[in-house]
């Protein structure tokens, strides 16, 4: 039996308690200052407020001021924090790490590192490790994984990627059950680019769903063509960043894009735009309602990343017409239907 | 203006009249003996009985005994016949072909050639060309293309693949519109394997949808994991047959699987099995109701093809666990939920 501490009691963090508890480990779920009410509800034996589903009662629960207890003698840490707060929260965790620690992360997206460069999230964690802990492995988690389905044990396959394959295998051994299947890989870059960009491209798939709102007619062909274009662009971006094609075409890319394009907030944002709402209005509504849509910043980060790669001679924006158009639609209020139609034209004619 | 004859007045054949008529061509739609009522309805100005949508009135309509008129001075032929009847119907078309002809085909699946070997459908056409016409190009059409959406002009991208790229480009010029976009490629094998196998694997995606019927809980993660596994297996099969990875990961493979997994009869068959019906009963019901599900024979053909490739040392059944399991479920009444769960386990552990 091992001890695992999950940092962040949101939907995904809470869900991952299930396979770990089932494997007989001591599982500690720590909530940030934003998760106080979640911990209260769970302590009261109620459903998790996010996915309205209970978690296993063996899970030990910790509030924001109990981080030291949550981390005591705990070698394994899973970061389950939104991308924009990941670095900040990790800084509080670092003092409790040792050379023996292994850190995994389910956060999705990009952030700016301390030098102001856009990087994948494992880099955000690594740059916060002090020199004596610089060998602590960071395992990137990707693949189709809706949190509620992990809680109620629908079978899935996910990827745990780490340059240190032994660290990935160690986590696999801790967490794999007969329904939560873990594939290990050493392609952190391809996994992370896929994981971040599938949220961006799911917005495009949502647009195709939304077009029905314009003329009452389905656009499944449009959605599928966008799916194929999205995969191709994800592969170009991953390759330019040093990632492997297998991750883009596998669970973290194509697999996860399939599930993300079927439901969720990224798709809903796209749907609203597809129906004809201007992006500036849709985004303002989102902000007013305090809704986070990961695909929205992912589009911008992806776009800026391509601009950087363009300067480095590794990729051009012209090779990424869908991402370019998503950026125009989301950040410059470009016309959605006409823009996407043009992307399909160009895809076949260039 | 050119003359194009479409052989087969089913859903897809009828749909392809739209972009051709819009481009100003003389478009002739010929119905087989099974399509008599369709031609009658269309001649009466009614909706097409299959997709309940009208076709453009400029389309010229021909009944089964009017093939000579339909083919008169027509250089371009599109075969839109179900795979099991393709060779037989093509034999009737061949006498009207000339050395100038170009044949395209939207049929999906496999069949046995005259030597009893499983082949992709362009081979079924080619072996029926007499020696003096052996250079007539056969263009394979793949990619996301629900027929009704072509009729009402939802934007899409499809692939026209031919070893003779000029022939593919000629067809692209004839048929491409601002919404029906054509990408040309020379990878006939990869395109055809994708086109055939996406029907087979769509049955698996349907199963994941059906599992909700067992316990009331969604299995979107399962579906997405199956999606990634399906793409990987399609690529292995295509590669072993000499096809290119780009087709599997592009429009004919990943793109078309996405749309096929969302709706249609392949998915519905899978859904019924996922809900717990034994395959032998589901298949009998299908036959009683005279419903053709392309994925059902595609699973068997695919399975037998892998067995042949195994003998040739090019691929093993062990490398294709999902196809192997689909064959067991569909043809040997193996348990569906348990079988698919095992495929997911094996995918991560082998």
- The oligomeric state is homodimer
- Alpha-carbon Rg of chain A, integer: 20 Å
CATH-defined fold name of the largest domain in chain A: Rossmann fold
Helix content of chain A: 40-55%
What is the overall shape of chain A? globular
Q: Give the percentage of residues in beta strands of chain A.
A: 5-15%
Q: Which chain pair shows the most residues in contact? A: A-B, 52 and 52 residues
End-to-end gap of chain A: 57 Å
Strand order of the largest sheet of chain A: 3-2-1-4-5-8-9-10
Number of strands of chain A: 10
**Number of discrete domains of chain A:** 2
**Main sheet of chain A, how many strands, which sense, barrel?**
8 strands, mixed
Please tell me about this protein's structure.
The structure is a homodimer of 350-residue chains. With 350 residues, chain A is α/β, with parallel strands linked by helices. Chain A folds into 2 domains: 3-186, NAD(P)-binding Rossmann-like Domain (Rossmann fold), CATH 3.40.50.720; 196-349, N-(1-d-carboxylethyl)-l-norvaline Dehydrogenase, domain 2. Helix content of chain A is 52%, strand content 13%. Chain A has 18 helices and 10 strands. Chain A has helices spanning 11-15, 17-22, 36-43, 67-71, 86-93, 121-126, 147-151, 165-175, 188-210, 212-215, 220-240, 245-249, 251-262, 265-274, 279-288, 295-311, 321-332, 336-349; strands spanning 3-7, 26-30, 60-62, 76-79, 102-105, 110-112, 118-120, 138-142, 156-161, 180-185. In chain A, the strands form 2 sheets. Chain A has an 8-stranded mixed β-sheet, with helices on both faces. A two-stranded antiparallel sheet of chain A has the order 6-7. In chain A, helix 9 (188-210) runs parallel beside helix 13, helix 9 crosses helix 16 (295-311) and helix 17 runs antiparallel to helix 18 (336-349). The relative contact order of chain A is 0.10. The model of chain A has no long low-confidence stretch (mean pLDDT 96). At the A-B interface, helix 7, strand 10, helix 11, helix 13 and helix 18 of A face helix 7, strand 10, helix 11, helix 13 and helix 18 of B.
